[in-house]
Amino acid sequence: MMDAPARTAVPASAGDADLRPGDIEIVWRRLISFMDEAMTTMIRTAYSTTIRESRDLTVVLFDPRGRAIAECTSANASFIGTLPRSMQAFLKAHPAAEWRAGDCVITNDPWIGAGHLQDITMASPVFLGSDLFGFALIAAHGPDIGGGLYSALSREVFEEGLRIPICHYARAGVRDPLVHDFIVSNVRVPEKVIGDLEGMAACVEKAGRQVRDLAQSMTPARYLACADEIVRRSEAAMRAAIRETPNGVYRSELTTSGLEEPLRIACTVTVADDAIGVDYSGTTGAQRFGINVPLCYTYAHTVYPLKCILAPEIPNNHGALTPLAVSAPEGCVLNPVFPAPVSARHLTGQFLSAAVFLALAECIPDRIMAESGVTRPQLVFSGKTREGERFVEHIFMVSGLGARSVADGPNALCFPANTTCTPIEIIEALTTLRIECKELVPDSGGTGQWRGGCGQRMAVRNASGEPIQLSVLAEMTHRGARGLFGGSEGRPAVITLDGKTIPDKALIDFPPQSVLVVESAGGGGFGAAGRRDAAAADCDLREGYVSS
Amino acid sequence: MTAAAAETPGRGGYRLGFDVGGTFTDFVLLDSGGRVKGTAKVPTNPADIALGAAAGIRTLLDREKIEPGAIASLIHATTQTSNTLIERSGPCIALITTEGFRDILEFGREARYDLYDLTVRPVVSLVPRRLRFEVEERLNADGSIETPLDIGRVPKLAGELADAGVEAVAVCLLHGYRNGVHETRVREILREAGFTGPIVLSHETCPEIREYERASTTVANTYLSPRVAGYIRRLDGLLKQGGIGAPWHLISSHGGRLRVEAAVRRPVELLECGAAAGVLAAAGIARRVGWPKVLAFDMGGTTAKAAIILDGKPILTRSYEVARNARLKKGSGIPIQAAAIDLIEIGAGGGSIARIDRLGLVEVGPDSAGSDPGPACYGRGGRAPTVSDACLVLGYLNPDGLVGGEYPLNAQAAAEAISVAIARPQSVDVDTAAEAIFRVVVETMANAARIHILERGLDPREFAIVVCGGAGPMHAAALAGHLGVKDVLIMPRAGVGAAVGLLEAPAIARASRSRLEALDDVQWEEVCDLVEDMRAELLTDLGTGGAHDLAFSLSCDMRYRGQGHEIDVPVPWPLPADGRHAALNGAFSEAYRTLYGRTNPGGRPEVVSWRLEATGPRPDPAVHTAESSPSAGSAGAVRRARFAGCPMDVPVLQRSRLEPEIRLEGPALVEERETTTVVPPGAEFRADGIGNLRIRIGSA
Fold first, then answer.
1. Which of A87, A250, B150, B306 has its CA 20 to 30 A from that of A441?
2. ipTM for this model
3. How far is A451 from chain B (nearest CA, A)?
4. Which of the listed residues A220, A236, A252 is the one where a domain comes to its end?
């Protein structure tokens, strides 16, 4: 193709573009809605339950330089941090001048994408004529990526499935048949996988068209000036928020149950005027199994809690994250080197919120929360339906959340991920599983002036006559979620098969009529129990959140 | 156009509609020719809505010298049902679930409705945990019985319910939507054991998959049951006492007439009816004017509402949320699976407060100064600048105040509030700051409306805006500008105009049958049986003897095999004998393409459920006559107002004095008793002869 090379539109400064009061507000709001609409479309047209029921996806808009401008409202804590890094990698592989309208670039490389192969990232450029106005990106958890069943027990990334390098899913609007065939040939449920990839491509293309129309209607110069202002103001607001946090070096240390051994996560948060650096020196080295966390995911789950405590109301974008730096020594479990196994990276990575909160507990006790019962247990089942079709189904459970300085921790809620559960009636309609119960676990929240949230118990029976392949991905079975300022710790997670305890990371045959029972961990309490309000204590007892 | 009907005696008698809002109740009375005979607006009596309504009716009838017996029909809408949920002011109710699942109601969908806010609080369940009881039973996903109901346990429950003071019971068992046998049995046993309150079953209320949403809907229905039944009994008694023996109806959330018996059984269908009146009125106008695509727009003190009207009918949703938390966030309310006008509610009203956020940007709403203290310009101690304050500073609002000068406004206080909170921090003048507030609030509404339209695969620029009341007429032209809309219409007599909408609503009933199968496997004989079955149900629901005056429309929910969300596909019925599969496939592809801009060529379409809707004859439309006294036109009044940064002297006209069909050019401020319509420069406007004010944007 001999198209003229793409030109990157150059942002005018706010002054040059003659912005009127209200312009930035208007553009910002619109861009967020475009991302929201793209996300809704993806959910409605999706095949995999991880997307259509659990909403494990995020859509983000970038400017021509690859800076995040706007993200969908109901985003995922991982993807908001990984997508900006994916964008930079895309631009490195394909500089701005190489992109054409209708291109769609894809990857699931764990170090470039979202930390494991299951998450697919796609990008589509936004063009107005031959001017490049930015990129729309989506990341979503696909239904299957081949390899061994999704578990923590892989020893190299190669076992974990098909690794798609940065390549063109489509060029100038034309799908690449070879890429398509490579994917179809390597997954268990190709119809669903391709259905979702098509949905993702359509989603970013549509978001791009809407952004293009907006840029056109308000003049490209003003659009770009607004995008610039969005980034500039977000950064300024984040820096102002950091300045309100006392300078200092704050440390925390916690353990995860790990696989062969408990892992130590050492976290050092340095608040220096208007910037924060987080470093994980002292953290356990990379593991032989798939619980290592590529740095992109470490970054995501470190900036996420900081964003929550510092500036929850600022719509997230490049500017809001610029003052935050994250580092981890190469070769540690939070920065493993290819081809380390990383499939279940969230089992380690989702502890980082708590590590950050704990480090800052003395510094800003009113802003943080006690440790939550992370990570939410995840169960993956692979079997055949009564009609003989293959199913791969994920059950995401949730845990009790940590209490705060002014409120109990919510019972059974998703954190730091933010996925929704798949309804039991849907699970049972799609599989041969029978859910025997799904209920709160009384007494599982840590006590305190403010109580930690209760965890959740789920019992699942294999109602078929054949074994079902089962992968358990869970954590916090070795200790409870830590309380703060005198609050007690929550109850640890417990996983049993037919009454016998099994490891929290397991890949097993789930025998016919066997029953798997999983209790997620409760959240930690906040403040001394003696200071608990009498009415709140009575209510806990009356409603059965505590038994005595 | 209704001349024939008007001259048909016996059609007749008077029609009375009333719309109970949070603050005021609006009444409208039509004579047998559909002409507006009288109207009234009285303060709502929150302590006894029925009594207040009955008193209002008596006042209106006395004033118009009409015998109560001359009222032939009466129709009514109220915001009280949703208030019961928002305030959690309903009775003590219980939930009975399958053993092991009583916490489903509390779990919800388990996500946080705000990703970054660590203080999010989950929805407070309508049934506390101690009143959620379990029974041993289990159905399979296909509806077959795995474990029979433990009938020994249920009678004991009746005693526990009585001890706890439970007034009504919801029953929601797993897979109950596939087979209601256990739910029905639970009700029978509770009745035998002496429980007399309402018992609401999930398979009758919401026969749809997804246990949380079904339970939530069933529980909401239960929660509303005792109050709604009591209210209806009381109002019925008061009406009869007052000599009105005519049958009366309520408006349902989906904009159809609902028989009183049906409303008692399914009060959840009334949840959104408070907002229905204005939308129905806009739909009536859309039909009369002949606009195929209309955005109905209503802006009050706290929120704005918008709905899409296609070909004269409001489009519906089958799931929505009520009682969202203060910031109206998606996911923070109670999910309801029932048909309702697909309404968006935006935290933007005249009382919405403006501020500078941490980013140095102007933010408006969603919090509101309400009516007390109200906007700064009310002079009642409000210090925060609001949208109304901005409108006053911009010259859009008459400083002599609304409602004919009864409540003068304090321009000084408005300017001061804007100066302190917005202008000084931003280093701009007060006028510029006011304009920024105005633009931001308009965009907040435009943005929500745009997404609402885009999500249906439609183009906002092809719409016209029909405005009903409140602060809407002041913002509508600007809203049109933001959306690229050309035509704006301001209804006659705001609140009362909306009440007219009630009187134009036909009876509507809907039935559905879930039957999941691949399109290729659909047996048409079975479909015919299903359709007949639903038709019989609808006839019972509507209480009509025959189908001759009902219009039926069939649709089905379809998706590609493997997907989890269905789309609504209109089905031409009867389908052509040859190529029925192809016809349905074609209809599906077309609907899918409209929504999502593509189809999925390798996908296998499947049918999830069939739906039949019956619509009764539409009552004769109301006849609006221009209330103009076109004598003087403008009395030469002029007010300084600001558009796009330019202050200008703008003529102030009285709406009632506009001569019909005389085209005028903006800018102009058209005033009436309760509101001002702002016509920007470049727009053209006219009174249209049937009581509407029409604006054409950018046509001059």
1. B150
2. 0.92
3. 14
4. A236
